[in-house]
Design goal:
This protein has 1 helix and 7 strands, in the order βββββαββ. The protein is mainly beta.
């Protein structure tokens, strides 16, 4: 177990020419969008943001999001530069300095 933090700008290099896709529940059979056409991924002062233009068959998912039933989000990445703070042996902290983004998921 460890806590994970992302430094501001951790995904900046990965977002220059991204090949990132969006899926439902990390299911590669349920692709909702892909950069650069139907998925926009950005990073701001708060963190990673994305906007999907979903296909028409995904209306059932859009409805659950709009109703507020789905509140979370997840992403798949690979850290390329990280630092560890193991001051607290019970709960070390990994700070991701730079990372490669592959997928965002609802």
């Amino acid at each position: 177990m460890f806590q994970e933090r992302f430094k501001r700008g951790a995904f900046a290099a990965s977002l220059v020419n991204p090949d990132v896709y969006a899926s439902w529940q990390h299911d590669a059979r349920e692709i909702l969008g892909r950069t650069p056409g139907t998925l926009l991924v950005t990073e701001d002062d708060i963190g990673l943001r994305y906007e999907i233009t979903p296909p028409s068959w995904a209306e059932k998912y859009v409805e659950t999001i709009e109703r507020g039933d789905v509140r979370g989000s997840s992403f798949i990445f690979r850290p390329t530069k990280e630092e560890w703070d193991e001051t607290n042996a019970d709960m070390p902290i990994r700070s991701v300095i730079e990372a490669e983004l592959f997928e965002v998921s609802r």
